[in-house]
Amino acid sequence: MSKGEPLGVVGVFASSQPMVEAARQLHALGVEAVEAYTPYPVEAFGEHVRASRPSALPWIMAAGALVGAFCGYFIQYWDEWINYPLNVGGRPYNSWPAFTVGAFEVTLLFAVAAGFFGLWFACRLPRLYDPRLEAEVFDRASTDRFVLRVEAGASNVPREKIRRVFEQHGAEQIVEVAA
Amino acid sequence: MTLAANAPRSAPVVEPGVTMRSLSEEVSGRLLSARPPLWWWVGFGWAVALLLVLIVAVTNLFVTGIGIWGVNIPVAWGLAIAEYVWWIALASGGTIVSALFHVTRSPWRSATNRIAETMLLSAAACAGIMPILHLGRPGLFYWLFPYSTVMGVWPQVRSPLWWDFVCLLCYILMSIMYYYVGLVPDVATVRDLAQTRSKKVFYGVLAMGWRGSARHWRKHKTVYAIMSAIMAPMVISVHSVVGLDFAGGLTPGWHSTQFPPYFFFGAVISGTALVVMLTILVRWGYSLQDVITDYHLNALAKLVLVGSVMLGYAYLFEAWGPIYGSSAADKTEFASRIFGFTARAYWGKIALNILIPQLLWLPAIRRSKAALFLICAGIIVGMWLERYIIVVSSLHRNHMPSYWGVYYPTAWDWSILAGSIGLFLTMFFTLLRIVPIVAMSEVREIIDKGEPP
Hints:
The structure holds 2 protein chains of 2 kinds.
Chain A: E1 7-13, H1 16-29, E2 34-37, H2 43-48, H3 57-83, H4 96-122, E3 146-150, H5 159-168, E4 173-178
Antiparallel strand pairs in A: 1-3, 1-4, 2-3
Helix pairs in contact in A: 1-5, 3-4
Chain B: H1 3-6, H2 20-32, H3 38-64, H4 79-103, H5 109-134, H6 160-193, H7 197-207, H8 214-247, H9 259-285, H10 294-324, H11 328-339, H12 343-355, H13 363-367, H14 369-396, H15 411-434, H16 440-450
Helix pairs in contact in B: 2-16, 3-15, 4-5, 4-8, 4-9, 4-14, 5-6, 5-9, 5-15, 6-7, 6-8, 8-9, 9-10, 9-14, 10-11, 11-12, 11-14, 12-14
């Protein structure tokens, strides 16, 4: 580590392929804390670079669906049998075939809502200000540039070596940013 | 499976000249320019004029009552219910184009899904007001909610009308969430390209700090895919329940086995037809010819054709029941439907929804924007006729001859139709100025894969 404030190294690439290659090489060198900022989801980055742990979000959505199924059915059951029993054409108070429709819709609503709120929670959003991403290079990651960021102090690999990997893969711009 | 891997070889999904930069600037530029183009003002002006018609019509309806319409016993459901079904079908078509074809990873979906979803939200709002206007005592619509009133009265949840209320509520909420999840990465692009302070703040808050990190993308992709897989069956259930609103009764012609798929087929064709019309207009207005290519319109036109063939099957089945069955009421009602009171509307819908769309088998017709636009406009009209027939024809020839009658819409009925179109267009034109109308992040995937590394 060099003296002073710890600096992270950021490389900007014009295309996804060299970015993935650079990340792969850094990974081979033992640099673990690499994060990519890309204008579209680059599947190859996740596949090759990070040992991907399956996301919990599908299970959260499934749990939402179960809760929705229970709530959607229960409110009808409670309404029609316990709270306000109403004889409609001699049908049983717990007319489950008729209740499945409402329960189904609420099931799907809760599943989608669980995914919606779960996604933002898992991404720690909203986060309107992030000091680690203040450098101007990150702004183009939402348009047309693929940005690799190596966190400071994440490994023993010296910054110069990281820079060289970026250069080898044709990074357009290499900057060092705080933290 | 990636989008680029699914891209066809025959026609470009994105014209070769488009880069990620030009795409982002082109789409965001429409929102960031200080002044909208002239066509936008013209369209928006007409839309607001029609919206004023709606405001006047609804005010009169609320003050005077439902007697200003032509509805009466026996035809107690009039244009409001027909238009409810019409609008919800148009909305459903937006979900079908967007969600179903995200599940299949069809590359043509990426440039058109935002138009489809924007259309869906605008149409769902129009659908949502129709049953309330029709209630007669619209202030009491909240009685449908299962909540504890001081009167201790609760809804009767075995009724398809209540199912429909739940469906519509869930559908609109889910559509908004689905829309927003897809929108966030594109809004982040607009935020980063914005120059003025107010736009930076507006889109910054809307984007919630999305930076496109690989971690976030992976979660986003997972959730968005599952949401799409949920939205597709959801929309089928919504439209089936709309069909059950009718089929739950014993009225001749409202067939409980036939109606759910029949209504869904109608949603496929009419919703897709409206997506085609709006896509052609937006593509022309925003000069998006290099992102929304002939390939997209060709694919959408084929989907319209599929919808037309499916609907043709439903029409055959609709005729088969009364002809093959032994119910005198069904036969009488069907005879009046095709030769009697609604004959012109019936043959009109056959021509507009089934016969004329068969022209789409010809590649030359699919390539011609004008022909495609006119055929789709015809389908929208034809589907309106279909809803009108479903509502009016069955009610005007019910089981007992002493209970027969006719229905003529009044000027106020028509002004609700005109006004709801105004509401739709006002919402669509407003959203056109606020949201990026092309899902840029998805189109970038196709662009980047096209470049040599």
